[in-house]
Inverse folding.
């Protein structure tokens, strides 16, 4: 597993979370909205409509827990986020990587229950304390449990061995779809009855209908840590004028993930570097 500029053999890390710089990852995620099989329609949303939300990705390790220990890498996270942003562009919402954390899981004895029908709620006990926070979305990637993914209120868990039923026009790999599906639950959406939809269980479908878009956006707008793109752009410009280049680049990098061909996005991608 590789996180940021560091490599850890067999994830030999302390129980304290290690939060790493992810600007390089963000630059890769922002290049375009591609991803085979993803409906990248923006449903008429302009830059002024766009919502931008932070995501913290946790790659859990477990020296004594094979069901916990993920083998995902930085490049996997980059690819997953890029396709997630393509899926959620239908609703005018993008997600920027606040940090990528490689960390040793707590309660590794729980690996013995992972895969059993009642294993979901106990997944929260795997989270190291130091990397928890309440002002962003959390994704924990592990090796296996009884579902492809689950939203547990405080966090989302996704197994890196997820499998889905392919449907025409669906996404080309499971992890971005499972992650996007769990984000749908985090944004108040329930399961859908059409197998081509993102919120249907267990398929590669990614469609989001108008009612779901309205509901998800309303939920997002109710979270104080999800920001409007034009507000971020204005703040970044003000910081740049004050010669605070470091903080300005941080804000521009959040805008750079938006999969739009827009002058403000093009400028943000230039200024984040």
């Amino acid at each position: 597993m590789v996180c940021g500029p560091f490599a850890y053999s067999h994830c030999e890390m302390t129980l304290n979370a290690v939060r790493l710089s992810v600007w390089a990852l963000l630059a890769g995620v922002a290049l375009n909205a591609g991803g085979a099989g993803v409906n990248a329609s923006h449903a008429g949303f302009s830059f002024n409509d766009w919502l931008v939300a932070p995501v913290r990705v946790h790659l859990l390790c477990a020296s004594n827990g094979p069901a916990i220990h993920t083998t995902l890498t930085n490049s996997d996270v980059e690819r997953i986020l890029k396709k997630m942003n393509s899926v959620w562009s239908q609703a005018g919402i993008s997600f920027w990587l606040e940090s990528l954390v490689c960390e040793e899981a707590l309660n590794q004895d729980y690996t013995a229950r992972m895969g059993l029908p009642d294993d979901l709620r106990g997944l929260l006990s795997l989270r190291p304390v130091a990397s928890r926070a309440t002002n962003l979305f959390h994704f924990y990637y592990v090796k296996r449990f009884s579902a492809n993914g689950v939203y547990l209120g405080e966090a989302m868990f996704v197994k890196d061995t997820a499998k889905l039923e392919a449907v025409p026009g669906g996404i080309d790999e499971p992890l971005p779809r499972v992650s996007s599906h769990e984000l749908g639950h985090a944004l108040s959406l329930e399961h859908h009855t059409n197998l081509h939809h993102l919120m249907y269980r267990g398929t590669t479908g990614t469609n989001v209908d108008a009612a779901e878009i309205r509901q998800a956006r309303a939920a997002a707008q109710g979270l104080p840590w999800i920001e409007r793109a034009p507000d971020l752009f204005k703040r970044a410009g003000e910081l740049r004028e004050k010669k605070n280049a470091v903080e300005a680049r941080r804000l521009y990098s959040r805008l750079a993930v938006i999969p739009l061909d827009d002058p403000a996005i093009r400028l943000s991608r230039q200024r984040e570097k």
In short: The two ends are 26 Å apart (CA to CA). The chain has a mean pLDDT of 89. Strands lie at 2-3, 6-7, 18-20, 51-61, 93-104, 137-142, 149-151, 156-159, 227-228. The chain has seven helices and nine strands.
